[in-house]
Amino acid sequence: MQISGNLPTAFRDADRLSVVDAYIALRPKHAIRKAAKGQSVVQESGYADYSMLLLEGWAALSKTMPEGGAQIIDVMLPGDFALIGAEIAPVAAFTVGALTDISYLAIPLEHVNGPEPEHAALRGVLAAMLVTTQARTSELLLRMGRSSGACRVAYALLELYVRLEQIGMARNGRFHLPMTQHRLGEFAGLSNVHVCRTMRRFERDGLIAHPDDHDIYLPDLDRLSALAEIDLARFREEILLRRPQ
Asked: Which residues belong to any copy of the HTH crp-type domain (predicted)?
């Protein structure tokens, strides 16, 4: 995927955080909303007629079974954009919950529908971000249906690392992971016990380490990628926005 056309200066790097800057430049008085860790921003089947642009923190989009079991279908990181609802489709398909303290913008459709070139450029980048969201969701669904638990956990760790690396929140295999093993299990479609056993095996095999509380180190990205059945270079191209030429 390549973003083309005459992009404003704010989009020259085509990264997710530049989208935040560009939107705020267009709507400098837009109110910033906040939610505390553990709080639900939107409830599944509730009313929502806006999109969400995450400024700070981590959020989870999740579905819940009638008996209470939950599946995280995506994790939002700083700078991520998600379609929550629209005027003619205002019923939220999932719950949006704060994995950490978060701040975000609730964006009504009309705020990105102006005729100005800046609005058109913003719509183009937001559409591209939705494509990358679909790409990583497709990868996750493939592994949920066709792979082992170890493959799913390896994939989850790599997806988060690659995305955090792009926004400067991960480096040299190291990043902060503010998700409990229970939440990581909801993301990988596994029980807490299964995730715990898998993470311990990864540690014994030298695939992960924990230098600090809630910090994780992936010392061998190539081996972890092989376990996740990912070509890491191609994966980055598919799930990250690419710089304009």
From this structure: 147-222
